[in-house]
Amino acid sequence: MKISAEQIAGVLEGEVVGDPTVLVSTLSKIEEGKVGSLSFLANPKYIHHIYTTQASVVIVNNSFIPDQEVKATMIKVEDAYKSFSKLLEYYNQVKLMKSGIEQYAVLSEGVEHGDDLYLGSFSYVGTNTKIGNNVKIYPNTFIGDNVKIGDNTIIFAGVRIYSETEIGNNCIIHAGTIVGSDGFGFAPNPDGTYNKVPQIGNVIIEDNVEIGAGTTIDRATLGSTIIRKGVKLDNQIQVAHNVEIGENTVIASQSGVAGSTKIGKNCMIGGQVGIVGHLTIGDGVKIQAQSGVTKNLKNNAAVQGSPALAHADFLRSYNHFKNLSKLSEEVEQLKKKN
User: Fold this and answer.
1) Which of 168, 139, 138 is closest to 151 using CA atoms?
2) C or N terminus of the chain, fewer CB within 10 Å?
3) By C-alpha distance, which of 201, 137, 139, 132 is closest to 165?
4) Which residues touch 245 (CB under 8 Å, ≥6 apart)?
C-alpha cells in the first residue's frame, strides 16, 4: 500500500515540509532508509543521518531546525516518537483489515458470528460456537465446539482452541498457541502405571489479553483456568490446569506455572521462571528471570534465585558465593599457617 506525505500528515496532524505528494510504501530506520520508505527522527544523536538518509519521508519534532539541506520530505509534529508509534498502530490496523470467509474454511452447524468476520482458508469452527463482530481468524486455525469469542479479537494462523473455551473482546492470540488442551492429571496405580484423570473444565480468557506464539494454556480439571483482563503472555509459556493469572500481569518467555497456582494482578515475571503448583502469588510481585518459586509470595514481593529468595537477600548472598573459590583458598592458607 502506498500513502502520500500529505495523507500521513493528516493522520498525525502534522505539517509537511517538502513535497506533499511523495509516496511511501514501507517503514525504515533513518540510518537504513531507502527511496519509498518512511522514517522518524527523535533521538538527537541520530540527527546527522537526516542529511544522508535515502528515506522519502521523515517525521521530525516541531523544534527541529536543519542546518543544511534535507532531501527527504519532513513531517513536523509535536512528538516524533509518539507520532511514529501512532502511525505503526494505524499501519497494523490497515494491514489486518480483512473480512470474508475464504475457500475451504468450515463453519459447523449452529455457529453464530457477527459482522466483518474474517475466516482464513482451511480453518475449522466447531458446532454452536459464537463469534463476535470484527473477529479475524487466520488460516489453518482450529476452533472447537461451544467456544465463545468476543468482538475485535485476532487469532493468528495455526492456533488450536479446544471446546468450551471463552475468549473476551480485543484479544490477540499469536500463531501456534494452544488453548484448552488437557491438564496434566494422572492417578498412580500400585503397579506403577497411571490412570488419566478426565479434564472437564475450560479456559476463560478475559478482555484485552495478548498471548504470544507457541504458548499453551491447559483446561481446568474442574472449573476454569482463568487469564484475567489485560494480561500479556510472551511466547512459549506453559500455564497449567486451574491456574489463575490476575489483571495486567505480564510473563516473559519460557516460564511455566504449575497447576492450581493463583497469581495476583500487576505482577511482572521474567523469562524462564518456574512456579510450583498450589501457590498464591500476591499483587504487584516481581520475579526475576530464571527464578524457581516454591512458596507463597506476599503483595509487592521481589524475588530472585532458585529456590527464590528476596531480591535484596539474593544480591547479598551472590556477593558471597561468587567469591567462594577465593575464600576457600584463603581458608586453606590459614590452615597451613596453623
Assistant:
1) 168
2) C
3) 201
4) 226, 227, 228, 231, 233, 239, 251, 257, 263
Contact 73, 20 (CB under 8 A): yes
Instruction: Give the CATH architecture of domain 159-315.
Output: 3 Solenoid (2.160)
CATH placement of domain 3-95: 3.40.1390.10
Which residues are catalytically annotated? Answer: 241
Confidence of residue 338 (pLDDT cuts 50, 70, 90): low
What confidence tens digit (pLDDT) does each residue in 249-305 have? 999 999 999 999 999 999 999 999 999 999 999 999 999 999 999 999 999 999 998
Average pLDDT, the chain: 94
Sequence-distant (6+) residues with CB within 8 A of 295 are 279, 307
- Where on the phi/psi map is residue 165: left (φ > 0), alpha (ψ -120 to 50), or beta? beta
Determine whether 115 is exposed, middle or buried from the number of CB atoms within 10 Å of its CB (0-12, 13-18, 19+).
Answer: exposed
Q: Which residue has the cell 516481581?
A: 286
Percent of the chain with pLDDT over 90: 83
What pLDDT shows up at residue 180?
Answer: 98
The β-bridge partners of 142 are 124, 160
Which residues on neighbouring strands pair with residue 24, listed in sequence order? 3
Amino acid at 49: H
What residue segments make up the domains of the chain, in order of their start?
3-95, 159-315
Share of the chain above pLDDT 70, in %: 99
Q: Are the folds of 3-95 and 159-315 the same? A: no
